[in-house]
Amino acid sequence: MGVVGGRYRWVMAAAGERPLNEVKFLTVAEVASVMRVSKMTVYRLVHSGHLPAIRVGRSFRVPEQAVHEYLRESFVGVETA
């Protein structure tokens, strides 16, 4: 494959080292729907680097697995006394 550089590795790492043709990518609107947040919140997560994404033209695509990992890592449990 002719793609070299950090973005390719970043997406591959976020996708669990699966081949790109097996990775399901979501639009910003789809990510917002899954996370139950606004599209602006998703854009902020992408631009801050908290949520990996690739740019396709003027839009972003986020690996579905990255959304699930972000949510899993962000889960806040409530401790009982």
UniProtKB/TrEMBL annotation:
One GO MF term: DNA binding
Domain of life: Bacteria
Short name of any one Pfam family annotated for the protein: HTH_17
Domain Helix-turn-helix: 25-73
Annotated signal peptide: none
NCBIfam families in the cross-refs: excise
Protein name: Transcriptional regulator
